[in-house]
Amino acid sequence: MLYRRFGRTELQMPVFSCGGMRYQFKWQDVSWSDIPSDNQKNIEATIHRAIELGINHIETARGYGSSEMQLGKILPKFPRKQLIVQTKVSPVADAKEFRKTFEKSLKYLQLDYVDLFSLHGINNAELLDYGIRPGGCLEVAKQLQAEGKVRFIGFSTHGATDLIMQAINTNQFDYVNLHWYYINQWNWPAILAANRLDMGVFIISPSDKGGKLYNPPQKLVNLCAPLSPMVFNDLFCLSHSQVHTLSLGAAKPQDFDEHLKTLALLDESSEILPPILARLEEEAIASLGEDWVKTWHINLPTWEHTPGGINIPMILLLWNLANAYDLVDYAKTRYNLMGNASHWFPGNKADKLHEVDLRQCLILSPHAQKIPRILAKAHEMLGGEEVKRLSQQ
Q1: Which residues lie across from 162 on neighbouring strands?
Q2: What CDD domains has UniProt attached to this entry (predicted)?
């Protein structure tokens, strides 16, 4: 395993982390007696495999249902200093309730402290305010830190880049969990801002949210050759020294195997990546047109400033990925989350396009005339049954 300094925490972080949201039995709390033995044995085998590989960062959350309880039967068996354990609690209006929720996490984990504690899902201004206002959840986190129950404090986010920058620039956090990978690089300014303040940078779900790369379309496989799309994406992310660790979200012990191929390639990334990156860009231009590829994102309105709350930037991104790389299944899943995932994936689909007038909000876009037509085509291509977040299934 390779390790990187995790910002001001000074922790030596493995470049791959063992995310804990895909191997648990349920997304809701259950009694220990309800957990099947084969499910628990699988988690135990997954954690042992991670540690064996040097992946000693185990990351979970109160919102991951039975994950903490199940980990609590495993993690205390390892030497405590061998592990970097992280959990996350969503900020709420009542900071006392936030503390109670954390205490529940610690009890489930059967640990005296966690190394990393995140305010989970700072996705909008209200949740940021719950965190950083006087008497808010961040103050509680710092009290827990003073009590020795928390070593370092960070936040996780699915929010807009501007909001992430706002949270980072408070300089009150030691690290950030955020989305950034080849198909969606919007948060790069936030990563640079975190680096300037010597914060750790953890990338959320690069293989799943980064394109369902465990089941890639053949077109993407061909474009990424000789690497698999998963290894290409890992190498792309880790070739940037500003990134410290990628969450793998393993569901079983074998899920680490493909990622491990990345490690031997890192020193050669400057030779390996450019031909693949050039091929991907050429295919996008061939499929979508050079002018569109280079300028589609300019001066688009946010969903909050769009009639009907239509999330134009995200819909256009999904349209691009589906057409350029055949990431249709991925695009459909993400598209049909809109309007059904609250602040975790905000904004609406283009299903009510006929009810709104987008001319004013698109007035500064170089593609103002064609975007409504593309939104209609995107809905026709991607629309389907509503998709629920994993925690709601």
Answers
A1: none
A2: AKR_Fe-S_oxidoreductase
Same domain, yes or no, for 264 and 294? no
Segment 360-384, tens digit of pLDDT? 999 999 999 999 999 999 999 999 8
Residue carrying the six token digits 């793998």: 248
Residue 360: domain span: 289-392
Answer for the pair 150, 111: CB distance below 8 angstroms, yes or no.
no
Beta strands in the chain (DSSP E): 3-5, 12-14, 16-19, 57-59, 84-89, 114-119, 150-156, 175-178, 200-203, 245-247
279 occurs within a structural domain: no
Q: Is residue 124 part of a domain?
A: yes
pLDDT, one tens digit per residue, over 11-28 is 999 999 999 888 888 888
Q: With 80 as the cut, is the pLDDT of residue 168 above it? A: yes
pLDDT at 390 over 70: no
- 306 and 367 together in one domain: yes
Clarify whether residues 263 and 295 are in a common domain: no
The answer, yes or no, to whether residue 393 has pLDDT greater than 50, is no
The answer on pLDDT for 146 being more than 70 is: yes
Q: Are residues 100 and 137 in the same domain?
A: yes
Structure tokens at 365: 């876009």
**Per the structure block, which two tokens stand in for 311?**
């999330």
28 and 118, same domain (yes or no): yes
Number of independent structural domains in the chain: 2
